[in-house]
Design a protein that fits this description.
Layout: H1 12-18, H2 26-37, H3 42-49, E1 59-62, H4 63-80, H5 83-91, H6 95-99, E2 109-115, E3 120-126, H7 132-139, H8 156-176, E4 185-189, H9 199-211, E5 215-219, E6 224-227, E7 230-233, E8 236-238, E9 240-243, H10 256-263, E10 268-270, H11 273-280, H12 283-288, H13 291-296, H14 301-310, E11 314-316, H15 322-327, E12 332-336, E13 346-347, H16 353-361, E14 364-368, E15 373-376, E16 385-395, E17 398-407, E18 420-427
Parallel strand pairs: 1-18, 4-5, 4-9, 9-10
Antiparallel strand pairs: 2-3, 2-16, 6-7, 7-8, 11-14, 12-13, 12-14, 15-16, 16-17, 17-18
Amino acid sequence: MNKPKAGSDLNCQNLNSHCFCVSLDEAALRSALESELGQPGLYALIQQHCPHLFAPRAVFVSQERIGRMAQVVQAVTSVAALPAYQEDALAQAPELARLGEAGSHGVFLGYDFHVTDEQVGLIEINTNAGGALLNAALARAQRACCPEMSPLVSPATQADQFESRIHAMFLEEWRLAGADRPLQSIAIVDDEPVQQYLYPEFLLFQRYFQRHGLQAVIADPAELQFRKGRLWYGEMAIDLVYNRLTDFALENVSHTSLREAWLNRAAVLTPHPRAHALYADKRNLALLTDEARLRSWGVPQTTREILLSSIPHTEVVAVAQAERLWHDRRQLFFKPVAGFGSRAAYRGDKLTQRVWQEILAGDYVAQRIVMPGERIISEPQPAQRLKFDLRNYVYDGAVQWVAARLYQGQTTNFRTPGGGFAPVWEWTEKMDCSKNV
């Protein structure tokens, strides 16, 4: 570990700027991945298919920031449970979100934050956040770069506990949907799943479910049929669909069977259209940063303060506000309402007039820019600087796991050498690493 600037406290900013040690044990990662899959080949598949999926270095985050993110998650969950909020959120949602019965909560909400020493900013919420089992495997492959870092490394038991919570979460989804028999079969569903960037994780989930005594298949939605009051994959009746689609309203014609199965309660779909409408529609961030509306819903003052101080102000882009938004564009980030994976999202200072007209003609929100954290991964010559965000995997208002994503460029992309998912090492003031910096 390199020495921080003279006079600086040994805090997370210093650690993220001056610790260049590699914490990832590649042999342990191979063992974790291939033991999870139960057959050789997954590690090699990842190296070929998505070589920048795992970052070799950890990200340091203070205990205070970890706690603050959890407070924001709880605040959003409490507001999302209010009938008045649900009425407003569903009023702007696709019809399917209003027609279908929710029943279950929806698995793997992903609360994505930009976190620095100065602030915590919730930039978006996703309803099919990927990477959970990949991060569990990554946690098993960490080593301390020095004795003082040993307390920061999560023991393997924490990954075990996370995986146990995942199993309990799917069983709870089945129970909440009103099932009166044991869960027997799960389909992991996405368009052309073999072609998806995170296909290796689908394999992990398939083996994970099988280890828990469930039949599990990876399927394209076009391979599913709704007949005889059930959802079928060939001759296998599907009880529950782990939904990885980005067609959140199931509008694509190839998703018709899934749509009919959910409307007729023939299979549990998780996450489902209603969950996306209540949490992940980008316009919801405008609702959650509208103080007058929060007051009208009866949101307590402490909850309002958490939301307004930790979610960057967001508003729906309206033609009537075009002149003001263009004038303020350098402080804004523009995102499509139904976007995902940062597609068609733009920093305001990069906008051309052509793109600006497309934004005005489309459904977009404008969000105040909150800068991401920074992780320096090499000594100056020059130093390689990566940005990072923090993903909180959440179920029913509880944070299950926190992971970092390191990247270069405008948004997370898993294409950056040295980037990818990284473990979050929680640092407290009581820890002393001064001997090694």
